[in-house]
Amino acid sequence: MFEIEQKTIEEKIKKFVIRNDIPYIDLKWSTIPFNGEWGISVSFFQIAANEAKLGRNKGIPVSQRAAEISKQVKEYLGSVPSFSHIESVNAYLNLYYSTSDYAARVVNSVFDTGDKFGAGVPKNERVMVEYAQPNTHHSFHIGHARNTLLGESLARIVQFAGFDTIRASYPGDIGLGVITVLWAYNKFYRGKEPEGIHERGQWLANIYTEASRLLEPRDGETPQEKNQRELYDSERREMYRRWDAGDPEVRNLWSMTREWSLEELRDILRILGTKIDVWFFESEVDEPSKAIVDELIARDIATDERKSGGAVIVKIDEKLGLKKEKYRTNVILRSDGTTLYLTKDLALAKEKFEKYHVDRSIYVIDVRQSLHMQQTFAILRLWGFPQADKCYHLAYGYVSLPEGAMSARRGRVVLFKEVYNEAIQRVLKVIVEKNPNMPQDEREGVAQKIGLGALTYSMLSVDNNKDIIFDIDEALNFEGRTGPYIQNAYVRANSILKKYWAENQLSAGKNLPSFEFDYILGNHEIELIEQIARFPGLVQQAAREYRPMIIAAYVYDLANCFHSFYHAVPVLQTDQNSIRNARLNLVAAAKQTIANALALLGITAPEVM
RNA sequence: GCCUUUGUAGCUCAAUGGAUAGAGCGCCUGACUUCGGAUCAGUAGGUUGCGGGUUCGACUCCUGCCAAAGGCACCA
Which of A1, A51, A120, A410 has the most CB atoms around it within 10 Å of its CB? Predict the structure, then answer.
């Protein structure tokens, strides 16, 4: 926010350093870590260390020399516009902002940009974020929820940071798992269809669990049981063969049940606030990927071992000329000529770059698929795919349960929809207790926002590379470092403004008095303003590092500052109008910033709770 | 066997190579007849897995161990 002033001072320091015959190195600025007053800081360790390295320090220890330079620079600078004072502490040079200027600048900047406060300038680069890749014929569990919440938040952050952003979903609508459901449905439940989008989707998932039990070998099974199982398995294989051959009966059954799953998926994405721009389906890249295999064989990148009963493989390390094993060898076409996940990913990459003209492609996929993704990108490089190094796998830790990994096959999953419903029930209970005057018709909507806010925050406040052991009581906690805590800060800010408008018979919205920060600000005000000012920089960092956690941590700090401020600093109760007006505006700026930051996480704050 | 990731307070997690390693939960102690107590203020709690190295400076980078999780060709 003070970039120009910082630049000017940097130039001055540079001039001073060079004039004193000290080799100059670019300065690294940071904010002063002390409370109470804000400003920027720079240290002279690097310059002193560099000087020592060149043997020009006259034997003075680095830290002592750095402190010396810092002191000299302070003397040289004297007083500087926009900064109230400068101090030299050890090797550091601290420049303190002029309080009233800075405060007004920050708050006005929020009002000038509103819900765009914190957004970056357009970067002229198009990024595709691929997430929400559940299989159809299964149900959406909390592992999928982490994936989707993370992908959606990342998309919002990247977009807000200034990149042209495309959201892509890639459901797995074909494969052995899908066929298993078709087989069992056809055999045991033909013609049945439960009422309700979610009930129907979950019912299909139960069929999968049931079918898996029938198809998996068991310890100590009798010969009859074994025969039965093998018969079922051959029926399933036959079903896959018929699907592959385009048998109309199987295809119809497939598209009907597939649609049931997609309907449920679309509704869950709606609940999560996700609007997918581009839908890819595994079934649609199946055929195009076979052409790529042919090309890879023709160019001797892939080895066709089908004549000897094998598959089509790529010896990735060998083709890349690597001595140590890194990507190993992988199959890109089964011996029966059908494609694999990896095969389809090759066609998908091509489609993304060629049809949608993206400059960068981010795959939000569980860490367990890291090797697979690296193999995919390596084969793209071998193929000569021009944007192979523009593909990035955002690996995140997976979600498991206290009793172990989730398994759709064993029916050991926690469904997102069940957690969501439970969240709403719990919030409604709290509302009855804490805000019994809330009108009935408002409660449901508020409960949805708070419940989802709690779940979302619990997922996004841990870094990407951390696994999560899902505990519903932790995920739906409403106190402390949680979504509702932050939403509550927003609500409190709102209630101050509402009261002001009501008392002065003004219409709610932007009716705020003009203001100046021409009094001595207290620590709570200073810290709150400082937090607001940090937001734009953190948006860029989060986008650069693909880490929504940065924003999650930030918005908690901001809310925490606001709660402290709220408790300690009177706003409407202030006697002096000028102070009241300034604080009112600060409250409005904080409210806006909380909303903007929460929006990047996909969390909405209600006006009351 | 090879590869990847992780190891920080009792638990769950933070910390662009930089000033005093911070939060939440839990424990304990307090808070205005006030703008909403889903809150605030405070106490206690640390050899950052262990050993070397690089650096003026290491939780952070390199290296060797130890421990945990995950992955390693016809699943996705």
Answer: A51
Q: Which residue has the least CA–C1' distance to nucleotide B3?
A: A326
Nearest nucleotide to A491 by CA–C1' distance?
Answer: B36
Q: Which nucleotide is closest, CA of A567 to its C1'?
A: B40
- Spatial contact of A597 and A118, defined as CB atoms under 8 Å apart: yes
Residue identified by tokens 């045991």 is A188
pLDDT average, residue stretch A176-198: 93
Neighbours of A145 (CB within 10 A): 27
B74 C1' to A143 CA distance, Å: 27
Q: How many domains does chain A have?
A: 3
| Residues A445 and A582 occupy one common structural domain | yes
CATH number of domain containing A80: 3.30.1360.70
Q: Name the closest nucleotide to A400, judged by C1' and CA.
A: B69
* Spacing of A513 CA from B39 C1' in Å: 27
What region, left, alpha or beta, does residue A357 occupy, with left being phi > 0 and alpha being psi -120 to 50 degrees? left
CATH of the domain at A435: 1.10.730.10
Give the integer Cα–Cα distance in Å for A37 and A40.
Answer: 10
- Does pLDDT of A176 surpass 90? no
Distance A329 CA to B73 C1' (A): 6
Lowest-confidence range among A30-34, A145-149, A251-255, A508-512? A30-34
Residue A144 CA, nucleotide B10 C1', distance (Å) = 32
Domain that holds residue A262: 171-275
Closest CA to A136 of A182, A184, A173: A173
| A246 belongs to a structural domain | yes
Tell me the CA–C1' distance in angstroms for A462 and B14: 9
A327 domain-assigned: no
C1' of B7 to CA of A576 (Å): 54
Residue-wise pLDDT tens digits, A421-444: 999 999 999 999 888 889 988 999
Residue A115 lies in a domain: no
Protein residue closest via CA to C1' of B31: A567
Based on its alpha-carbon atoms, the radius of gyration of chain A, rounded to whole angstroms, reads: 30
Q: Is the ipTM of this complex over 0.90?
A: yes
Q: Is residue A375 part of a domain?
A: no
Q: Which of A254, A275, A296 is the last residue of a domain?
A: A275
A178 shares a domain with A87:
no
Q: Within this chain, do residues A178 and A40 fall inside the same structural domain, yes or no? A: no
Q: Which nucleotides of B are covered by protein (CB under 7 A)?
A: 2-6, 12-16, 18-20, 23-26, 32, 34-41, 55-57, 69-76
DSSP conformation letters of A526-580:
HHHHHHHHHHHHHHHHHHHHT-HHHHHHHHHHHHHHHHHHHHHS-STT-S-HHHH
